[in-house]
Amino acid sequence: MTRPIRAVLLAAAVIPLMFGVTACVTNTESDHPEGWYQVHPEPVPEIIAMLPDAVRDGGTLSIGTFPPFAPAEYKNSEGEIIGSDIDLAQGVADVLGLDLVVREQDFAMILPSITAGTLDFGASGFTDNEERRKRYDFVNYQEAGIQWATQPGNDITPDTACGRTVSVQRSTVSHTDDLTARNQACIDAGLPEIDVLAYPDGGTAATAVVLGRADAMSADSPVTQWAVARSDDKLVTTGEVFDGALYGWPVAKGSDLVPALAAALQNLIDEGYYEEILQMWGLEEGALPVATINGEEPR
Question: Residues 6 or more apart from 292 whose CB is under 8 A from it?
């Protein structure tokens, strides 16, 4: 999941298709997963007291997000933005006694909007990395990596992909870093190159595997696991998760909002709401034991 700054993310979900396949992954999702419910944390006065006056007095917490990136954020059949990122942000807003305002923005515009002060933070699968930390602080809420998926019975793994066909979302780290490096390794070893099928979204990349157009797909691990879980047993993961990194909420560098967000997230963890949310979305594998700021526990 380690990925460079980019303007496009992944998405995956399952709906019936017309190609003789019972289910397939696309970038459209009808609703929440089965068994979903809205958690309702109580406001915590001592954490509310940590808020900057302008945020507390304003009464809202605004986030920028860029769907589709299921299961983190995507639109349901009514056009509402839902997902695990939204649920976690809502939980934090509840602890802080604030109303959550979800603003859809192009991914490339979220960080500049935070700098301009029109957003409080970003909730869109941002990887916390050193380059971004130069201008933003990150409240870390999940760990992920890159993971591949294939059809059951296919023996391909990330290390045996030379001469095979792999689908990916265009411009993601799986495309620009993972497959580029692996392809070069194939060339250096005198083996056939990987045939890379780059698509505009992750759902189409997953569909290519289901339909047999690609031997495997490479994507962020939460996206891959979501696609596999909803593929009607037509996809399985192959190989381990690798290149692990932290997802984080970017906030303006040095903002007094950062410790309040981290404390609110820690409250969700301590009270069990965090685990509930991740389990509903099938993301418990990436759960963090404590909320961190730029990868470190708050002092």
Answer: 139, 140, 246, 262, 298
